[in-house]
Amino acid sequence: MPWEKNFDLDEATDKAISVFWKKGYEATSMSDLIDGMGINKGSLYNAFGSKKALFDRALLRYDQKNRLRALAQLSQMPDGREAIVTLFDGLVAETQEDTENRGCMLVNTALELPLHGEDIREMVTSALGEFEEFFRQSIIKGQSLGTIPKALDPSLTAKSLLTSVIGMRVLARGTFDVDGIRAIRDAAVVMITNPEVS
Amino acid sequence: MPWEKNFDLDEATDKAISVFWKKGYEATSMSDLIDGMGINKGSLYNAFGSKKALFDRALLRYDQKNRLRALAQLSQMPDGREAIVTLFDGLVAETQEDTENRGCMLVNTALELPLHGEDIREMVTSALGEFEEFFRQSIIKGQSLGTIPKALDPSLTAKSLLTSVIGMRVLARGTFDVDGIRAIRDAAVVMITNPEVS
DNA sequence: GTTAGTTTATACCAATCGGTCAATACCCTC
DNA sequence: GAGGGTATTGACCGATTGGTATAAACTAAC
C-alpha cells in the first residue's frame, strides 16, 4: 500500500480562505493561491480539483469555523438579549482586529453571488437563513425573560438585525472606522432594549 | 477644421455602468465592455484612457444619476419621516424591478473597496456619508414635526438606517426575495415610528 | 475637394489566466 | 531493498487579460 497524503488539507484550506477572503473569487488568481497556500500548482489541482472547487471548500470551512461555531455557543446562553449583544460585541472586536479590512467572507460572497453557481447561492442563503433564525429564537427567548420588549415582532426584528450585521460588515471593508461600527452595534442594542419607563 | 467628436460619451458611460454594475470591476473584461458599450476598442481607449478610468467615470455618473438625484428630491419633503419611508419604498420597488440581481453599484463597490485605489474609497465614503447625513437631517426634521419619536438619537439612528439600506442591497443580490426585502423596509419604518399609545 | 481629425476594424503585444502533464522524488508495504 | 503508488515539481498548454498600433473608411468644416 502507498503512503498517505502528507500535507494537511485543512491547513491548506485555511490558507486558501485567507486569500479568497481578502480578494474575493474573481480577483484571486491561482498564483495568489499558490503563493498564499505555500503548495505547488500540481498539488493544488490534485488535492482540490479546480479553483471553483477550492473556493467552495474554503467558504464551507469558513462558515463552519466562524458563523456556525459562534452561533452554537451563543445559542446556549439562557438570555437571548445577552446572546445578541455578545454577538455584536464580538463583531465590533473582530472589526477592530481586522486591520486589512477583510470584513466577512460570507457577506463578501453574498455580494458576489451573481458570479457564482447555484451551489454557492444555496450555501450563502442557508447560512444567512440560520443566522436570521438565531436572532428570531434569541428574541423570543429574551421576550419570555422580559429582557427584550414584547412589542417587537420576532421575525421582523430578526431580519432587521441580520441586515445590520451585513451592513456592518460591508462598512467595515473600508468606509467606516471602528467608531462607526460601534455605533451600529449601539443602534442594534437600542432596538432590542426596553424603553426606559420615565 | 475637423469635426467634433460625435459619439455620445455619456451614453457610452451609461452602458459601461450597466456592465460594471452587473459584474463588478474585476470580473468585467474589456471584451465585456466593448460588447456592452457597442463601441470599438480603439474608441474606448481613446475616449476613456483605461479600464480603471472608465470605472471611475462610470461610478461617479452612477452616483450622480441615482443617489444624488434621489436624495435631492427627498430632501425637499417637509416631513422627514415621509422622506425616509418614501426612500425605502423606492428601494423596494427598485429591487422588485431588478430581475438580474444587480443590487446597488455603490454598495457593490463598497465591498470591493480593498481592490480599488484611494480615489474610489473617497468617492464611496463621501457618497455614503452624504446618505447618512440625509437620514440625520430627515430624522431631525421629523422629530420637530412630531412624526418621528424624539427619543431617537439622530446620528445613531441615521447610521442604523444607512446600515439597513446597505444590508438590504446586499441581500437583494440573491439571498432574499422581495418579501424579505419588504420586511427590512417595514423594520426600518417601525424603527422611526412613534410607539402606539395603548 | 482638400484636409484635419474620428471612428472603425484588425492585427498585435507581453503578461497572465486557469488548467494539464510527464518526470521526479518520495514513503510505505512487503 | 525492491516494488508500487502517491506527492511534488516545473515546464507547458491554449485562451484571454488589459492595452497599443496600424491603416482604411468616414465626416464635417474650410
The gist of it:
Two copies of one chain form a homodimer. Chain A has 198 residues and is mainly α.
Number of helices of chain A: 9
Oligomeric grouping of the chains: homodimer
Give the helices and strands of chain A as they follow along the chain.
HHHHHHHHH
The parts of chain A where pLDDT drops under 50 for at least 5 residues are none
Q: Which descriptor suits the 3D outline of chain A?
A: elongated
Portion of residues within helices of chain A: over 70%
What would you say this structure looks like, in words?
Two copies of one chain form a homodimer. The first copy, chain A, has helices at residues 9-23, 30-37, 41-48, 51-75, 80-97, 105-112, 118-145, 154-171, 178-191. Chain A has 198 residues and is mainly α. The radius of gyration of chain A is 19 Å and the shape is elongated. The model of chain A has no long low-confidence stretch (mean pLDDT 92). The interface between A and B is large, with 49 and 49 residues. Chain A binds a DNA duplex (30 and 30 nucleotides) through residues 1-7, 29-31, 39-43, 45-47, 50-51.
Comma- or semicolon-separated keywords:
homodimer; 198 residues; mainly alpha; DNA-binding
Task: Describe the secondary-structure layout.
Two copies of one chain form a homodimer.
Chain A: H1 9-23, H2 30-37, H3 41-48, H4 51-75, H5 80-97, H6 105-112, H7 118-145, H8 154-171, H9 178-191
Helix pairs in contact in A: 1-2, 1-4, 4-5, 4-7, 5-7, 5-9, 6-7, 7-8, 8-9
The structure holds a DNA duplex (30 and 30 nucleotides).
